[in-house]
Amino acid sequence: MRRLLLALALLLGLAAPAAAQSRQDVAPFAGPGTPVVIGQGYDLPTKHYPKPRRINVQLPPGYDDPKNRDRRYPVLYLLDGGAGWQDFAHIAGIVQQGGTWGISAPVILVGVESGDRKAEFTQPSSDPGEQQDFPTHGKAETFRQFLVQDLKPAIDAAWRTDGTDGLIGESLAALFVVDEFLSIRPTSTVTSPSAPASGGTGRPWRNRRKPNSPPRTNRPAPCGSPSPTRAEPCSPVSIWWSPR
Known about the structure:
The chain has helices spanning 2-26, 88-101, 117-120, 128-133, 140-158, 172-184; strands spanning 40-44, 53-58, 73-79, 108-112, 161-169, 189-190, 237-241.
């Protein structure tokens, strides 16, 4: 019994310093910590939607430096630009590094949080299958009016923009970008290295239709489909954007 008590005492004596050391090691991480900030979020009221739209903004390196107070910057509008599963965090990192190291021009990054992507990024379809599978589709023009009439003027008023705007999106948002390019014909473009998006006919994807033109009837396969007529590009597509 004496030997057993001695062994227990020895084990307790060894465990106590280890527990104290463990508590000491985690002490710096016991508090709430300091947030690592990559941008700021705002709720923008809009006449085009019943609720304000979440907008995330990252300013370029040196924007608040007094020596840059007269400098103006291009704006890159990022579709699917919300937090969480959307693209703001990783695109913000790429943009920030590019501006810091001179790989790309410093830009104001504006992330536009998506709501119903199938509604916001698509034009009306006459395909009964699409109408059944995606009942909310076809509201891209409302989303475009929000970008042009509400968001862009608010950004130009709030920050030092230079009038040069880019629009970038991937997957379904890339189709909206391509459609926008085909509609407004900006003078210069920057696109992803992936092949152009195409519909079932092999023609460039263009949902936006001229007045009184027949509706598009070809039905795209989803991103990631092995179909050779896959319509949705999986790589980002961007354009220099001059909406009218």
